[in-house]
Fold each of these.
Amino acid sequence: MNRSRLLYHLVKADFLERVRRYSFLLTLAFSVYLGYAAYTGKIMLRLDDYRGIYNSAWLGGLMGIVASCFLTLVGFYIVKNSIQRDQQTRVGQILATTPMSKTFYTLAKTISNFAVLAAMVAVMALAALCMQFLRAEDPHIHLWPLFSPLLLFAMPAMAFTGALAVLFETLPVLRGGVGNVAYFFLWVALLAGGGISDLEMGKPHHDSLYFRDFTGIASVMSQMRGGLLQVDPNYKGGSSLNIGQNAPTKRFVWDGVSWNSIQFLARLSWIGWAAFTALIAAIFFHRFDPAREWFPQKRRILPAWANGVTEPVVHAVQKNVHLTPLTRSAPTNRFAHLVVSELRLMLKGLPWWWYLGAAGLFIACLASPLGASRQGIVVAAWIWPILLWSQMGCREAHWSTESLLFSCDHVLWRQLPATWSAGVLIALLTGGGLGIRLLIAGETNGVLAFLAGALFIPSLALSLGVWSGSSKPFEALYTVWWYIGPMHHVPGVDFIGTTSESSQPLRFLVLALFCLAAAFLGRRHKVAYA
Amino acid sequence: MNLTIANVGKCYRGNLWALRNFSLELKPGVLGLLGPNGAGKTTTMSILATITRATEGHVSWNGVDIASQPNMLRSVLGYLPQDFGVYPNLNAVEFLEYLAAVKGLDATTSRRRIDELLNLVNLADVRKRPLGGFSGGMKQRVGIAQALLNDPQLLIVDEPTAGLDPEERVRFRNLLSDLSGERIVILSTHIVSDVEATATDIALISQGRLVAHAAPEELLQGVEGKVWEWVVPSSELNTVKQRYVVSNTIRRSDGVHVRILGPDRPAGSQPVLPTLEDAYLFALSNHRAGAVAA
């Protein structure tokens, strides 16, 4: 088989395997939602009090930016499981016995990731077309201005995102939850490094900006601003991509992106970066042989033979079977025992430095001035256990222990609340320094907000874990939520209540209850005869 | 103590019936549920272990429908699934302690019982080693130990000898025999020798239907006078295979010794004593022939 045919079949098999899963429909639904949000004005591109007439050029630019900005974040989490799936289905072990090279494999996975993300972009292209018909502000369809931003801004960004997902999967440190959290910060850095903040009104920008502009947002914005300045010389230069704000009152006609060879080259460079990233990933790819991992696994969970331990010899001759008769615990002891077991399960295998960090943050919360503790340190203290919370509700699916657990009596009403209680205990222990400070200071509202946060986080983790069967949704959503809410003290999103202004404990208590109910419903659906 | 399975059926998406009109009445002893791959054994086990709901029919434990009171059965149930995982960072003791807590067992007595069980399945020496480093056979032994944690009255083991070496298999069969006294043990497998050694009753299942339910002796009686051994040249083996149900072939210096199942004696063949494997294959071939005719 020639190489291009091999590559084609690798990509095709992987792509078909993904698109035939129900989760792919959810993925497309997200693209449809983005299109709908743009149509209803929930997502709005505004230049001070202006927006463009909904012609092909403006809609193309809007959709290109929306796709580039949002799908590069959400899409990463969607596609970051292609190597893991080959590992789990053991197809990888079969592939490893073929002459396929590591470079070929990571390249194929990058293309397959890109194909999935490109399907999402295609849905948004369709949404842009529909939107122009429905908005009916300009009936003339111009295909190039409508689709070129999606093609030239969004697609290269998708290629790079797909390659990053492969790279993260090949690096043991970034493969799991740490990678899921780290990607969010990388995405923020890529967006910030894109150069949009460097744009100055009326001044030409350097061509290097195009090469730094991962999503294309700076390139589009600079041209939109230039277009508006010609219409309104008093325009001050404000521009933003808003979610859920009031619509601008003024409109102007924008003719679309004026492409030049530098811009083309800059966009193509992101495809080059994607290929380069796939090659880097090939260096770290273990080819389904744990012994090839760049970072050695924990010695204690290596196979017994690797530690010089021989398997216990079994003799066919039977020993006498004598088993101690059992007694059942009292219901309250039984639940407390289970909570301790769940807590132990959560904490088992953590490195020493995790405890050191948690203890340091606890003491810092306790010893710092109340303002610093409430607005800064507790925020760090409640991102620290993210990988413990993210296991809640999905651990059973991840480690295939569902059949062992779900055949136990009262599993829904005992094990699930015990998991949740252990999650709450983790929150109270890690952020406890602030709780004590607030109690001492007699800040009733602060205490209430702290408790609401401690109840809300595990409830959110449990519901997402139960419904998705994966730790990824919580790791991604919580990181974004934590960054927007507690980090920036945004009212309505700040679940910790870091300031008096942003504190809304009642809202998060209600949300916690809602999440808890959702978790119970999800688990009830999975346990037969619940 | 009795388990009643009455007209149980399970339909999956796409109108695929994995099990249909399955009925059994079980008393203490070992039931060997024998059938080829894809026959519906695991579906049956999942329904009995309250993991999956039956689409039709009823399962009752001591006269109580498990759909209305599943916990009555679960509290006396030990289940070893065909595929199961473990938490890799826990060691064998911690994993069993965790499951004991989920099952609501008293901490002190369960700890003593865990020690005994680990001794029984020969894992006492590696009890403090994380499960992530265990081999397939060692994990299977942990699975056996967890199934016995709550001293189950109903023990369901699905393909339990998969991944075990020959000595472990013998040991596990002996263990099952020893445990079977005052409890119902259901052993699902496609390996006839596993059932031969332990089962007091055998249920044959094929294409989602119960083909036969009888004691091993009755199954053997049913095939008596229908098993023949015939020595044929290698060149005729394919023709023989096309005309008869062949249960075994052995190449020897005088030709191929073919074991044939059927009511009529082929010319030149000798009658031989049937084995359980002969009875199993005979029943399955009859069932398939009946299904094709229908």
Amino acid sequence: MILNALSITMIFIGALSVLLTIGGGVSSFILYRKWRRPSTPEEKTSLEDRSYLVLLIMVIVLVIRLINWPLFYVTLQSFISDIEGAMCIFGVTQVKVSLTRFLEFLKPITFFLIGGWFILHILDRATKTSPLMGRKLLVLSFISLLVLMDAIGDILLMIGIVPESLVSCCTTITDISNRPTRTTPLSIFGPEYARPLRGLFFITHLALIGMIGLALKSRIFRRPVLGLLFLFSLLNALLFLLSQIEVFAPAMMHLPFHHCLYCLWQYVPDSIAMYLFFILGTFSVGWGFTTDLFGKIGEASSLLPNYVGKIYWAAFFFLSASFILLVIHLLLD
Amino acid sequence: MPINKRQIILLIIFVIISLVLGCQGERKPIESRCDYDGVKIEPLYAVYFTLQDGAEKKFCSIACASMSFPALKKQMREVRVVDEPSGNKIDASQALFVESEVVTLPHVKNRIHVFAKKEDALKHIQKFKGNWVENPFFL
């Protein structure tokens, strides 16, 4: 185990999350079941009081988990000097490959669900009758399971990464000629795949921003439209990842043959802001859809268009920000 | 939703922040940085390419240089490697290359060692279960 301020923080918030999530998650599910049953006004009041307490505890846990995602990478970055052969975060991920990969996959999903849940929570709080309480509790109990896995995973990883572990770093894996991020566009566009891939990403990204702008202007917030935009944003995210690895990251790093995104964050730190904007923009499109999916009930229905509009404004803002940062970099380089 | 003044101001602030961040991101060149993966170069294991136009490329290891070599081969004028026992730069065509169980740089798992003298190379082969390998920078 590598002991530093960050790893101790990770273990501490991991343990705290486990404790609070077990209690909060189980209570959420019990309250959800009780919420569905008909009850007297007194029982209803008691149920509401208990729900607010559980929600308060879980809000604290979820905020911690939102911070946990970037903290996870900052902690891995802090381990680089203690792992022999690690030159960037990639090297650290090679110490416990399966667990790290699982956590890297789980964290964005958890982040997305927590963000979506918070929007539902805010929407519900804006109403007088709390029509979303039942759904909120149900989603919360599901999120609790993911948070629990994530927190336990964090603790196990922090304990499992042993100092002086010997690993090989990104060069031996991300730069091999048969990497899937190269072979996939190669099979579609041929050997000169970089230019079409770059063009395709620009087209999809600008199209996504344009469609969001159009939806905002004409206020088309129907579920099929929101769903299609969400799917399109996922496709755009896939292209973003592919074009970043194959085209943009090597250009931004001034290392034409190197394709490691962790190295990009290390050598060009402000690219982290670009990624952050992109993630928030893509997730905002998804949150627009999930808010419509879960929030269309009772009193909340009338507030929904206004909220979806705000979420879409955020998506428009973040995706544009990410795009501008990328363009500035390409122009400067 | 109509665009109001507040949102326009926010957008302008954002553009300014983006520009500042973007400019800050313009990476300053680091002298001892590998031209393949950007890591700090340990001079004893470095490889130097001199291109036809006089430009020089430097790499942290034989592994990184080998991966860059095919793309730069046509423009190559000279390849220099470092003799491990003495630390002197020598022409790759005159160097002896040995692969052994000793890893010079763990991050690229480089096991290829460079020697100027045959006796040094033989000593290394015997001591570390090595074997001869061809010059990876054959022009």
Amino acid sequence: MASSRVTRSLAAAVATVALALAALVLPLPTGAAAAGAHEITLDARMFAFEPGRLRVNQGDRVTVILHSTDVVHGLYIDGYNVDIIAEPGRPAQATFTADKLGKFRYRCSVSCGAMHPFMIGELIVGPNIPFGRAVASLFIVAIGSIITLALRPITH
Amino acid sequence: MSLPPTTRPDSGWRFDLTSIPLVNRILRWRPLQFTLVLITLGFFLLAILTAFFGTPAGNRNFSIIFVWIVWWALVIILLIPALGRGWCAICPIPAPGEWLQRQSFVHPRRRTLWTLGKRWPRRLKNIWIQNFAFLGVALFSAIILTRPLATGAVLLLFIVLALGLSLIYERRTFCRYVCPVGGFIGLYSMTAPIELRVKDVEVCRTHDTKECYLGNEQGFGCPWLVFPGSLTRNTYCGLCTECLKSCTMNNVAINLRPPGTDLLVAKGRRIDEAYKAFIMLGCALVYSAVLLGPWGVLKDAANFASLPTWLLYAASFLAFNLLVIPGLFFTATSASRQLSGLKQIKPKQYLIDYAYTLAPLGLAAWIAFSLGFVLVNISYALPVIADPFGWGWNLLGLRDVPWTPIVPAFVPYLQVPVLLAGLAFSIHTAWRITEEQARQRTLQAVLPIATFLTLTTLAFIWLYLG
């Protein structure tokens, strides 16, 4: 009896890990929304970007114009090959295609003061499937953990 | 001195690392701890010097990069998960006071310590001071983490406090009752796969001389004021290995074990430790939003842009950590108590018992948060090695190495598995705590706790990916 519970519990644990991994990495068909073009003005000041969050769709052509309102600031976008520098009164711009889904942080890339490492904004390229995958994995792990534990032999 | 029953209160396999001759020889080598502390003390002193005399630009100053990125990553991502209180064994902060007490660097020369030897007040024999000290440091974190002078002042304050307390109070009173870092290392060390324990409690019970606590020619008495024979949790054992050296019965072992074993030990659970778990989880959430989030208004408030906004931030920060998180968890434990039908257990005790389920998720949350800035900023370490003060030196030719974030777009894909592992570990702990207390209706008891843990993890995932 106990050994069959151990087997079932182990199977549940393995299934949980497999399903959670599958939810994170298995390819999904994504509906191709019509690609658009965005011209976004981004104001940089110590120690924040305005707007702090940008939302575009996958495939959109995005032009970012970086204005610095106090000192020299940079704009580095994680996962995209964007790294520009703007001085006060001298904006800089970069254009890229938002071809990767998910949330990407953009950061100041020029040391601008004490809180410089935390001068961060967020670019969300929708649909935000990576977030959906993570949430699916979360619930798989939560439910799977409970099923695994419920199936194992009671220990006192 | 009370001794626990001879039967082990914990369970699971153990592997005694001291059974490996080389490991045993290294751990018993008296200069080991002194040598390691000397190295960390060197870094520590350089951090203080660069903090006070170096450039005020944080990312060009050794103190900021080495304390808050290199040291922090070492402690939270590697040392605590692997070795529990391993850092405490080599921490330089209590070293000057301890050396002064002992009048020796390596070998025990005298039985009495050079100190007034007063006992820490009974009502302070808990970790409330550590809780509030951590909250104090966390409240000013936007300043301390980014300004070399503030970092230097904090480090200097710690070392002066540790030295002063060692002159007045017995042994490592600072580490045991005051150090804000030691408080959370103690909590999370319970999740570690390593422990220092006696091999046979019965040997300690019948051995009268208690060298492990009092010291002898081979080793100092336990600096952490712990009697190894009664150790059932890692929380207050600093892994200094003095008892391993002083035990004439060869009865002390350093074991590998199933991670998280201590979280199931009912003896010693307290409300101050429960609050440590709430505070650490709450601070990880606040840090993730304020420091890694996109909200300029939060960064401004935390960074003292104006006094009124900072006061509002401080009040919200304290309320979130001391009231909101404990309140939400109390709601979960009340629902659990209701569903399990265990009305005979007082609500406060029920809350304390289950607060330990927050330790694995809390540690995972801190690791995930740390991955978010360590990988992006670790490349600053090379230029500050070349030019620690920011004075224009170019040692090893590394000064002009550019800022190079390491796999920044991949960081969320590291954070999610870490958080999910922490969640699974925490749910497992909740289940085992229920079982260990022989409670019926395990599933009903665990569901509200698991819901709280899942929603908390969801909040982190939303902050990192949503």
Amino acid sequence: MKRLWRSGEPFIWLTGGALATALIMVVGLLAIIVVNAAGFFWPAEVLRLTLKDGSVLTGSVAARERIPGAHDVWRLKMNVANRDLYGADFVWVDEASVTRRQRPADVAVIERSEWGRLIGTLTAVKDGDTVVAAGDAAWPELERRLPGVAALRAEIRSLEKGAIGSINDEQETIRLALRRLETRGTTRGPDVDGLRARLAGLQARYAAEEARLAGLRATQTASVVVTADGSKAKDLPLAQILDVSFPNTMGPLTKVARYAGGVWDFVTDAPREANTEGGVSPAIFGTVMMVVIMSILVTPLGVLAAFYLREYARQGALVSAVRIAVNNLAGVPSIVFGVFGVAFFIYGVGGVIDRLFFAEALPTPTFGTGGILWASLTLALLTIPVVIVATEEGLAAIPGGTREASLALGATKLETTVKVVLPAVMPSILTGLILAMARAAGEVAPLMITGVVKLAPSLPIDGVWPFVHLERKFMHLGFHIYDVGFQSPNVDAARPMVFATTLLLLAIVVLLNLFAIATRNRLRRKYAMSAV
Amino acid sequence: MAVTLNPHATTASIMETPMVEIERLSLWYGAKQALKNVSMAVPKHRVTAYIGPSGCGKSTLLRCLNRMNDLVDGVRIEGAIRVGGADIYEPTLDVTELRKRVGMVFQKSNPFPKSIFENVAYGPRILGVRSRTDLEGMVERSLRAAALWDEVSDRLHDSALGLSGGQQQRLCIARAIAVEPDVLLMDEPCSALDPIATARIEELMLKLKNSFTIIIVTHNMQQAARVSDYTGFLLLGELVEFGVTRQLFTNPRDTRTEDYITGRFG
């Protein structure tokens, strides 16, 4: 026994076991996320179950589980959709009560812009009150009309966002200009009249565009009649239809293509239905933009602070105290940083900016409310200890002889710092930045009170001058997970979305890190530095 | 060579053109005195060695000559040092200018984490040389002078940290002479090297003394005897004896010198 212990073998097993435990936990977590997220986009088969009491259920099987307390009795969780018809998307069915299972080829799954999915059989296509096609002719007629429907929807959307949106923006600008004149005591005169005239012109244009919009909407008269279980008929306007599919007739290739399309839509579309449907593109955009702004803010600040601490400050009790304080700052709960961000950045700095530069918009705050700039600043504050510590460690690892060599060649301290020390410490700075980005991308609590919202009407970057709107609120994947998972009105339907969003957030963090790691490795190779 | 030595040895004067003159130099680290009233004249285009036991102040003396001691907190200096006739502790003097004239090679080779080319070009760049062709000429000349060109000419843009210890030290010499200083200070340049690399550096010193005044601090008495023309022996911050190397080693005037070189202490 003693010999075994002295051989060191048990210790190796202990260390290996610890690593294996850690790996198993991480891999398990990833597996749960991947398994749950991956199935989300797969077009599931639609079953038609006939029960003992004669009723019929059509839908896809979402889960199968043993009934608690009973022996070998199973039940199915059916996703029957049609929330507007049945009141709920999911129904539990005892397997024992199922008398017949069918896979009808004619069942259509319809993605629509309201009420979630619709599952049923197409019975007729109508235009107004006239039936255009019925029975088997309904689907070809619908298929023929769908591209036109999509085009019309795109046109309406571009009219709302484009022409009408820009008229609104202009009106707001003029209204603020009038307000500015008013606060200076000018309520009449050529300036005011000019602005009022422009405002009137805009209002006329607005009315015209509204009329055009109403005209377009009036052409959306066609609808499709879908028969669901229990002979319930739904008259669905074509304008609401996003996509129609027949999962039971799809070949494997079609399914793969639809799967890829589903992933693509998820990444590129805006959310619908209180975030439980559609995509997450604004949240991806917000997350990445916030991390980038945070990096731009935190890197110079942290690096300069570390340089002062290590290169210029006289090493002593005070510097040691500062160093300990900085290290401890990394342990402060992030919500505390959030509260500080609200109090200092938003109400303090933002309030002052509003009073000085956006007084005409008050009491509506511009910078005095949560926004992407304040959220990024708060996170920069949160991650600055990471950057300082990593940079300081890198600086400490540079041999003193390197600095002496530069000074002995007649370089000044500044030249030495910029031309020798900074390049040598670059890999460490990037290490710090990687850690900071990973931390910032996954942080949610401080963002909830400094500028993240459930649904942002517009992105922080768009075509309206000055193009980058740092005062705007934004969406964030981390908050999206919380919102969809816990604040959603339809938790069951939204659950796969939570996993998919989580997977996406992980993928983005990994991508950002890979980019930084690749840069760092290139620098290291260039200088053949040891890992500092 | 006409040499007259002061019988008291501590104020040696040598009848050659002096490059560096040290006059009654005393130095304190806080309350501790590290150099006591050292005076000597280091002749131009010769190799001068400082020997002595650890802590005798020989490195301190060397680092006074390019004012590297300025970087240490709590240093106080009395006396005067003139390089090429100009007082280097004059308050208006620009230290960086001095260091361009008095180059230094350190005990531990300390190449920058940059390419071989950038290491040698660093000094000229600091001096304001911008033209690529000028820099290339300077780098090649310095590397040739440091007997390193043949070994690295095909990988100038590789990292300097990939070189062997001896090559790194010769690179540091090339870097120091790239700015064409008058004086080259070498602080135990071979203490971390194997005998073959040491032999190459010693060979190099003999070649370089035609263009530079070299002052070397060494622990190795054989090395001092092999490469230097003049030797100073320091003990506890005092310059015990300074004179022509052969004479100091074969016929020391001071019994303490004799004790040291015969290995009775140190």
